[in-house]
Amino acid sequence: MKLKIAMAFIAAASGAAYAADLYPEADMTTTPEAAATTTAYIEVCFRPAHGHPDTRGSMLFDLEDYSGWTAESAILNIDVFYQSGCGLPTSFHTYAAIEGWDESWTSGHLDHGSVNWGTFTLGDIDWYQLDITDLVNAWLSGSVPNFGLVFESIDSNQAEHRFYSVNASSEAVRPYLTLTFPETLTQHSWAGIKAAL
């Protein structure tokens, strides 16, 4: 253990980057009226002309160990496994949730802020990397409370896409957030060092 901690400090002094991968603490899909679904996937879609309601995805990450740090990058990795048969893409905005929740949530959509922290488009079945660095740094600095994020379709003509959730049976397909920090001694806390071991 002492050796590992010493190596962490050496890496910090050398200026090497430090990265961490985090699974969501919770994630879910919501619809306007129904209870949230905590299935093995998250769905984002809004196409009422074809009978599909406004479904939104939400994710929550525990970032307590990195509070006060500033990330060089924060990339959300998701594995899209289903695309609507119409072949159309799905574009969505990313908002910060403004109320507490977990996977026992039984209401409709989460309330969220008005700031769009990123617009992304899903097309073919594949892994996607979503850059949410600005939102994560807002959480880490405390300027935005961390109640997780909400993916909401940009309009009412967005086809259905599904990607695996943290509840997927295979760990290999679960979403994860890759955080990259500059290694500086002033940025290290004991909690952060222990989390890296």
How is this structure best described in words?
The chain is mainly β and 197 residues long. It has one domain. The protein contains three helices and eleven strands, in the order αββββββββαβββα. The chain has helices at residues 2-14, 133-141, 190-196, and strands spanning 17-22, 26-30, 41-47, 52-60, 73-83, 90-96, 119-122, 126-131, 149-153, 158-164, 176-182. Strands 1, 2, 3, 4, 5, 6, 7, 8, 9, 10 and 11 form an eleven-stranded antiparallel beta sheet that branches. The protein is globular. The N and C termini lie close together (8 Å).
Gap from first CA to last CA: 8 Å
Integer tally of domains:
1
Helix fraction by DSSP (H/I, runs of at least 4): 10-25%
Total count of helical runs of at least 4 residues? 3
What does the main sheet amount to?
11 strands, antiparallel
Strand element count: 11
Average pLDDT figure: 87
Layout of secondary structure:
Blueprint: H1 2-14, E1 17-22, E2 26-30, E3 41-47, E4 52-60, E5 73-83, E6 90-96, E7 119-122, E8 126-131, H2 133-141, E9 149-153, E10 158-164, E11 176-182, H3 190-196
Antiparallel strand pairs: 1-11, 2-4, 3-4, 3-10, 4-9, 5-8, 5-10, 5-11, 6-7, 6-9
Can you summarize this structure?
This protein is mainly β and 197 residues long. Helices cover 15% and strands 38% of the residues.
Identify the notable features of this structure and list them briefly:
about 200 residues, mainly beta, 11-stranded antiparallel sheet, 3 helices, 11 strands, about 15% helix, about 40% strand
